[in-house]
Structure formats: structure tokens, C-alpha cells
Amino acid sequence: MCANRPEVNMGLTERKLPAGTHMCMIFQDETERRRIIGKFIGTGLATGEKVAYFTDVMTKEEVIDWLKGLHVNVTDELAANHLSVQDTLTAQSTKSALSESADNVAHWNR
Fold first, then answer.
1. The model's pTM
2. How far apart are CA 43 and CA 11, in angstroms?
3. Boundaries of domain holding 30
4. Does the CA dihedral 43-21-27-90 come out positive or negative?
């Protein structure tokens, strides 16, 4: 089954993995988390992937500022609907946020 899926760069190592690979990442500290996740997000956007980032540690504004600091063109990626950033509290507590997330997933699966 994996043989039929294209391999993609996850931004973590030189090794490419089958699209849709699930992974679990454990970090030593916040600095390591930001470095690894930032590279993962940046690589995904640079290779044309659509990225949904849900945060329970940082606010949406903090995530956007952090990504801008990594030279990710956040404004264009958000406008093109390639990047979605939501805090988990908002996503869980507002019907519109959940609806928007579901709409984005449905749109991305087309």
C-alpha cells in the first residue's frame, strides 16, 4: 500500500517518507520544538503542501510572528489558503472554527 504513495520531504532528515506517514515527535524543550516544527512547516509550504497548525502553547498571533521570523511568507500562504493557524481552545469552543477546519480539510482532499 505504501509503495503506491509518493514520497515527500518532511524537512526533518534527508530521507523521504511516503505521503500520509504518521509520526510522533518528542522534544527536549521549547527551542528544539520550534526549530523542528518550524522546519517541518516551512518545508511543507515550500513543496506545495497545505499546512494546518493547531496550537495549545502559543496564540495564533505568536505562531504567525514566529513563522515570519523563520522567513516563511505567512501573509501570502494564509491568503492562498495554504496555511491555517488556530489555537485549540478557539477550534474546540467555536462552531465556526470547527466548520472552517472541516471545510479546509474537505477542500484540501479534493
1. 0.70
2. 5
3. 2-108
4. positive
